[in-house]
Design goal:
2 domains, 6-stranded antiparallel sheet, two-stranded antiparallel ribbon, Phosphorylase Kinase, domain 1, Transferase(Phosphotransferase), domain 1, binds magnesium ion, alpha+beta, binds adenosine-5'-diphosphate
Length: 369
């Protein structure tokens, strides 16, 4: 961790923590998880670097300096913004500078309002500063300076690794669930939860991109035809959103379920070749939950319930994840969970065969006597 980031972290840690923070068990603090994070992040950072170079060739920053931020390398882009590493010209503070064109003023203001309402939280990337600037050639640009998160997005991790070990999936999903719990406790609904909006570093996973919080935006089938960018989003949209309803808290829980499934299986459960097919798969809930480890299935069933009211709350998801972990640990140190699942199946299979054999023997004996 560099000095500037360290000081950012220190200043964040001086702020009062919301109650959820006390229960956070990040892989960093967890002996077994820590190693896994580091190995994964190294590889995913490499992937990120390659992507950065590819995109950097096709995009240019709008200016060399915006407000007092000197623009550095390209970090990523979403539907509305481009994000660059940036350094403060006077203090040398390094941040991730998210830049939006003037027309996105509403989104910019919503994003600030959401951060102001939430305050500082361990599981949400902190907003440090923001402003609007007039640039030559561009109209106004809005900028948001965020804590710089060095390990790439969850999308980068999925691209470079596909499926991850259940223990790591557990740590990531729990981090996300805690972020959601904090948002929901403050009356905020993320509405755009997907791997591109989850950032990773050695401290675990954090949510970002709160720009749709408080918006009335609904997914409409017409926009699917014109905006290829929506393909990614539709794969995380809930059935009620696909039907055109407004996203409520339960929509965030559905997205959490989709992400958990994707981490465990290495495949997005609903993503198909085009947004329409994806939308159909979501609304018909075409998903093979059997692919996930057995201990996860009831939680996935719950999060991916068609009826929003059956999905529970973010707090209940955190609790279920803790119970799931305790259960797996209780089953012993004799192997990974997937092995244990196979063991369980084997026990059932062998037990069943023995029972059938006994019935057979008894039947033969009964006839013989
Ligand atoms: N704080 C950050 N640190 C590092 N990279 C970031 C940060 N914030 C965003 N990014 C990168 O920029 C991308 C787009 O940012 P995001 O806030 O999701 O913009 P949009 O609102 O356009 O979707 C992210 O997917 C990620 O790759
Ligand atoms: Mg985004």
């Amino acid at each position: 961790m560099t000095k500037t980031i360290e000081s950012l972290h220190n200043s964040l840690h001086q702020t009062e923590r919301p109650k959820a923070a006390a229960r956070i068990a990040t892989p960093e603090r967890d002996e077994s998880g820590s190693h896994a994070w580091n190995t994964l992040l190294t590889a995913s950072t490499r992937e990120l670097e390659l992507r950065r170079r590819r995109v950097e060739r096709s995009k240019g920053a709008p200016a060399e300096t915006i407000a007092s931020w000197r623009i550095g390398s390209f970090l990523g882009a979403g539907a509305t913004a481009v994000v660059y590493e940036a350094t403060h010209t006077k203090t040398g503070q390094r941040v991730a500078l998210k830049i939006l064109e003037g027309e996105h003023r509403e989104r910019f203001e919503r994003e600030i309002a959401a951060h102001q309402k939430l305050g500082v939280h361990d599981r949400v990337v902190g907003l440090l500063d923001y402003g609007t600037e007039r640039l030559g050639g561009w109209r106004d640009v809005h900028w948001l300076a965020y804590e710089l998160v060095s390990g790439g997005t969850l999308r980068d991790l999925l691209r470079s690794h596909g499926r991850v070990e259940p223990e790591l999936a557990h740590a990531i999903v729990r981090n996300i669930a805690e972020g959601l719990e904090a948002l929901h406790d403050h009356g905020l609904i993320h509405r755009d939860l997907k791997p591109e909006n989850i950032l990773l570093d050695e401290g675990g996973a954090r949510l970002t991109d709160l720009g749709l919080i408080g918006s009335e935006q609904r997914i409409d089938m017409q926009s699917l035809t014109v905006a290829g960018a929506f393909v990614g989003t539709v794969a995380y949209a809930s059935p009620e959103q696909i039907e055109g309803q407004k996203a409520r808290r339960a929509a965030d829980l559905w997205a959490l379920g989709v992400i958990a499934f994707e981490l465990l299986s290495g495949k997005s459960p609903f993503a198909r070749g085009n947004p329409f097919a994806t939308a159909v798969a979501v609304s018909k809930r075409q998903i093979a939950l059997g692919v996930a480890p057995r201990s996860w299935r009831s939680l996935l069933e719950r999060l991916l319930s068609t009826a929003p009211s059956d999905r529970g709350t973010a707090a209940s998801a955190v609790l279920a994840l803790d119970m799931l972990r305790a259960e797996v640990e209780k089953r012993g140190a004799g192997g990974t969970e997937s092995e244990l699942v196979i063991d369980g199946d084997l026990v059932l299979f062998v037990g069943g065969m023995m029972f059938l054999a006994m019935v057979g023997v008894l039947t033969v004996l009964a006839f013989a006597s």
